[in-house]
Amino acid sequence: MAQELLDLSRIESGQVELILAPLAPMSLITSAADRMRMQAERAGLKLSIKCADGLLNVRADKSRLEQVLVNMIHNAVKFTKPGGEVILEAEPVVGAARFAVRDTGVGIPAESLSRIFERFYRVDKSRTGSGTGLGLSISKHIVEAHGGKVWAESNEGHGSTFYFDIPLF
Fold first, then answer.
1. pLDDT recorded at residue 125
2. Is the pLDDT of residue 95 over 50?
3. Cα separation of 45 and 108, whole Å?
């Protein structure tokens, strides 16, 4: 938790220097999926990738955006029952690439959706066995440092989708 707080504080204050370079969205989602595949399999989940053909490169710090995806995949795995699915997606939008982590999990109550990117906010403390409540806040700041935006959509009981857009290179 101390490391996550330090990381968040440095990101918020602009002290984290991003190493920006052209990055293929397919490379990013494949790398994040590879890192999380064993965790998904242990949880009895299917982890898959969908990437639009011909998607242009983004201007990004690969390790930081991979951290965002890993945070989102970790949450999806934590809140999806065995037999469920987590899908990583990348598609073009005007001036950016849109990334998504979609799950078939428990979903997020509508009244909590607007707060999930706040520091320490946890939707339901009784259903989260662990976690600091910092992962999504860190993710939000990393995406915004790239000039992007992040948001989530959810239907309680039917899963969630976490999105972020990153400008094209």
1. 46
2. yes
3. 19
- Sign of the CA dihedral with 65 first, then 139, 135, and 10 last: positive
CATH topology of domain 2-9+20-167: Heat Shock Protein 90 (3.30.565)
Q: Max alpha carbon distance in the chain (Å)? A: 43
End-to-end CA distance of the chain: 34
Rounded-to-integer distance, Cα 142 and Cα 100, Å: 15
Domain ranges of the chain: 2-9+20-167
Residue 25 and residue 97: Cα distance in Å, rounded?
Answer: 7
Residue whose token pair is 């990101």: 11
- Which letter does DSSP use for residue 107 in this model? -
Name the one residue in this structure whose structure tokens are 């989708």: 161
Question: So what's the pLDDT on residue 151?
Answer: 97
Sign of CA dihedral 4, 63, 71, 15: positive
- Check pLDDT > 70 for residue 15: no
pTM of the model: 0.89
Q: Of 49, 45, 55, give the one whose Cα is nearest residue 88.
A: 49
